[in-house]
Amino acid sequence: MAKKAKDPSQKGLLRAHSPHDNFRAPFDDDWRGSDSDSDSDLDATDFLDESAASESKSAFLAALGPRRQWSILRPLAGRSRCCIILLSTIVGIWILLAAGGAVIYKKYQDEPVYGQSPPWYPTPRGGIASTWAASYEKAAKMVSRMTLAEKVNVTTGTGWQMGYAVGTNAPAIHVGFPQLQLQDGPLGIRFADNITAFPAGITVGATWNRQLMYARGKAHAIEAHQKGINVLLGPCVGPLGRMPAGGRNWEGFGADPYLQGIAGAETVKGIQSEGVMATIKHFVANEQEHFRQPWEWGLPHAISANIDDRVLHELYAWPFGDAVKAGVASVMCSYNQVNNSYACGNSKLLNGILKDELGFQGFVMSDWLAQRSGVGTALAGLDMTMPGDGLKWANGDSLWGPQLTRAVLNGSVPLERLNDMVTRIVASWYQLGQDDEKKFPREPPNFSSWTNDRFGVASYGSPSPQEKIEVNKFIDVQANHSIIAREVAAEGTVLLKNENVLPLSREGLPEAKLMARRDNIYRAIGKRHEGKFKVGIFGEDAGPGEGPNKCKDRGCNQGTLGSGWGSGAVEFPYLVAPIAALRDQFDGSKVDLHEYLSNKPPVGGAERAILEDLELCIVFVNADSGEGFTKWDDVSGDRPNLDIQKGGDALVQRVASQCGSGTGDVIVVIHAVGPVLVEKWIELPNVKAVLFAHLPGQESGNALADILFGDVNPSGHLPFTIGKSLEDYGKGAKVLYTPNGVVPQQDFSEGLFIDYRFFDQFGKTPRFEFGFGLSYTTFEYSNLQVVPQKTKSELPARRPNPAAQPPTYSSDIPHASEALFPADFRPLKKYVYPYLNSTDDIVPGQYPYPDGYDTVQPLSGAGGEEGGNPDLWEVYVSVTVEVANNGAYDGAVVPQLYLSLPLARQWIARPVRALRGFHKVYVRKGETQTVTFDLTRRDLSYWDVERQNWVMLVDDEFKFAVGESSRDLRVFGTW
Ligand code: NOJ
């Protein structure tokens, strides 16, 4: 029997009144009237419905009748005193808890007004960009032939685990639009077999290599395509890394918007070059895991990231701009609220910034259950809801699906909006060439995310009986992608310290060094060297542990660390542990390898003598984190601190003191999701080298060996700052671990000053600065030239007129009969369909729209094309420098350009310097190369809140500094 849905606002899921973006019209109750039969699924939220609970209790007692009630209660009269005492204690505790609850309720009563983000309506229609015009034309033809139910199908997920992929919408069969298959995630294909586990985003960022960024994206998409995926749920450029302990920073490319922007855009281009749609995520300011979504952390609301307009533009939204400019097909809006309005229902963000200002032509999809209202999100610019279920996981009770059908029929969601949603999705499909059936056959993926068995059901999440079919075909799509994975892992390894110990030779140390060091060591310990060179490998992180896939979604830290955990992780096909590669690569005839794959190696007895004899010790330590749905140890998604985990610091200290009795050379290798503190041992005299290998993916050991033995000269650079303490990053860098209200509030009051910008602004000395990374060779910089390309001017050229016109469709609301379940249709339980059982309750009318809905918004001067005003992407000045390799090895170098804004108008806050260019170039020893940085108008501008545009300061000079890190600046120039 179809039950009436409970109104979520009564259950505290949504505030009763949402003035702007998350608007729920008064008719919402009806609007959510459910066609699903799954309301019986109770979850954590149901206990809130106290009045309902007590009502049903009295109903239960009433139904028993007076005599049976009495017979239940009567035995109490005869109970002993003890029972009475027990009962009074329970009642006492209950009263105390209730009083406590009342106090908390009082405290939290002052929750902020919902929707402090300004309204921006209506949603700009897609189809204005020259680059998309042909796809929109084709889409218009297809959409105009769709029925209402088909249109709704295209916009709404079919429900959690209803298809093979983590997300599927439904097809528009009679016009030939297929079901789309959406799959995580940024570092490989989640829940799939025979795929590549690439290095994580943070490792990619650390390569600073644009070609590799592109190549990894392309290889990832080749695999996705061959597995039958249409849409990849990556790359990730948010979180940006405001908080170094943020749980998911590792999925992105580093704590700087420019680096994220380039890496995100290159990845998008790589993915889309194979015809797979990329999804740039999470828009925006999902900077921490704690409280990221309602109920996951016990609170009814997600955290609100409160950001001002300028900071949003210059930091958090910046990399999304690059992705849009690169033609990204999809943007995933995030779980959190921004300025107290859910990101997926925030009209300023989606309609205003993304679709008008950035001219985004693709479709906005919700993160999984990030949609928190029905009509409100449609009006605010959401185009696709995922996974389709609404406020609760896997119950099939969608906020769209049949509700969207109803809303269009009664007029509360304008038909024009629905048409635009669908057109954006269909146009993206054409834009990527997925209409070519030879390349994209209309078949489900050849793997199931939900079972490893060959046979299973198509809708795993539905309890309805289904026929078993072949769901896993185990197709190997890895090709030679391990080569790219290995290159990224090697180039993403940062050499932090090297006192004449690296590169090693296969015999242990390079011959000359070897002799000298041996003499020293053995003189110091008063022994004679005999036999082979003695190397010790220490730490659990060097070994395979219990296998890379021991914990679900990689949600624990054991064995060597290849990735963080959560939806951004994959099933490793294999993981080359460092020990395996070292065993393989050290010359066994010359090297005696001693393995201690534990963080508490033995110290006494026979081991003591061995440790005293070691000449070289390599210690592996790590730090892990991940998505907030899983916790490991004291890491609830976000790390509780920046410490190396599992006693790694103590391990390094012990090894340093015992390796060759304190005279052996120690190399520390760190695998980590982000910055870790190294203060406890970094200055120990025999800690001679430190490698920061980030999260290297399946080729971990091989890539590390490439660096250790000098087959690859290190060229990785830090994509974040390694401070001396968490405090040094500033107040804003701290994760909010305990809620400060029923809607946790996080004010981004540090503004532009995150990571290195904070250290520079407040004169803090980092341990290793942003951009830092050593090489086995050295480079000399000279001859910086500034080559103006265009004349400076404050504002970009006028916003151009649209290059194309969005399609128009008939505005006649379709006949309600289009929305009814077809005759003889056998629905699967929990599956989200677009259909209604009856149209009797549909009352067309003039429904109220959110406040501000009728205010005409001025079009942004920063907009006008895909990526925004084209003038913002014009190169205004180029800077060239010469880089010579004057050291002993060939190698790649990463010249980085930092910009300081003109001094004029000092009241405008600005970072001391900001990254605005980088290239990786390979320079042979003795050779010189010229590197050119092209700076666009956007690169040279700040976001002027009053003028609502990017503004160039023209009345003074820009300063350029080029060097090898944000602090190692070698050559300078002005314009
Ligand atoms: C939630 C995550 O935040 C998002 O990144 C992911 O793509 C979806 N789940 C789907 O797994």
Tally of extended strands? 28
Helix content: 25-40%
Low-confidence stretches: 1-78
- Arrangement of strands in the largest sheet: 1-2-3-4-6-8
Q: How many helical elements?
A: 22
Distinct small molecules bound, one entry per kind: 1-deoxynojirimycin
Q: How much of the polypeptide forms β-strand, as a percent range?
A: 5-15%
- Coarse morphology: globular
User: Main sheet?
Assistant: 6 strands, mixed
Structural class: alpha/beta
Pathway: Glycan metabolism; cellulose degradation
Main location: membrane
Subcellular location: Cell membrane
Family: Belongs to the glycosyl hydrolase 3 family.
3D architecture notes:
By secondary structure, this protein is of the alpha/beta class. It has 22 helices and 28 strands. α8 (257-272) packs parallel to α10 and α17 (578-585) packs across α20. Residues 166, 184-185, 233, 281, 367-368, 567 line the site of 1-deoxynojirimycin. 1-deoxynojirimycin is lined by residues 166, 184-185, 233, 281, 367-368, 567.
Task: Record keyword descriptors for this entry.
single chain; alpha/beta; 6-stranded mixed beta sheet; 28 strands; 25% helix; binds 1-deoxynojirimycin; Fn3-like; EC 3.2.1.21; cell membrane
Short description:
It is an enzyme of class 3 (hydrolase). The chain has 975 residues and is of the alpha/beta class. 25% of the residues lie in helices and 14% in strands.
Secondary-structure blueprint:
Blueprint: H1 28-31, H2 50-73, H3 81-108, H4 133-143, H5 148-155, E1 167-168, E2 181-183, H6 201-207, H7 210-227, E3 231-232, H8 257-272, E4 277-283, E5 304-306, H9 309-316, H10 318-325, E6 330-333, E7 337-338, H11 347-357, E8 363-366, H12 375-380, H13 402-410, H14 415-431, E9 455-456, E10 469-470, H15 481-491, E11 494-498, H16 511-524, E12 533-538, H17 578-585, E13 591-596, H18 605-613, E14 616-623, H19 648-658, E15 665-672, E16 687-692, H20 700-708, E17 745-747, H21 755-761, E18 779-788, E19 875-885, E20 891-893, E21 896-900, E22 914-918, E23 921-923, E24 928-936, H22 937-940, E25 941-944, E26 949-952, E27 959-963, E28 969-974
Parallel strand pairs: 2-3, 3-4, 4-6, 5-7, 5-17, 6-8, 12-13, 12-14, 14-15, 15-16
Antiparallel strand pairs: 1-2, 9-10, 11-16, 18-19, 19-24, 20-23, 21-22, 21-27, 25-26, 27-28
Helix pairs in contact: 4-14, 5-14, 6-15, 7-8, 7-15, 8-10, 15-20, 17-20
The structure holds 1-deoxynojirimycin (NOJ).
1-deoxynojirimycin (NOJ) binds next to loops.
Pfam family, one: Fn3-like
Transmembrane segments: 83-105
GO molecular function: beta-glucosidase activity
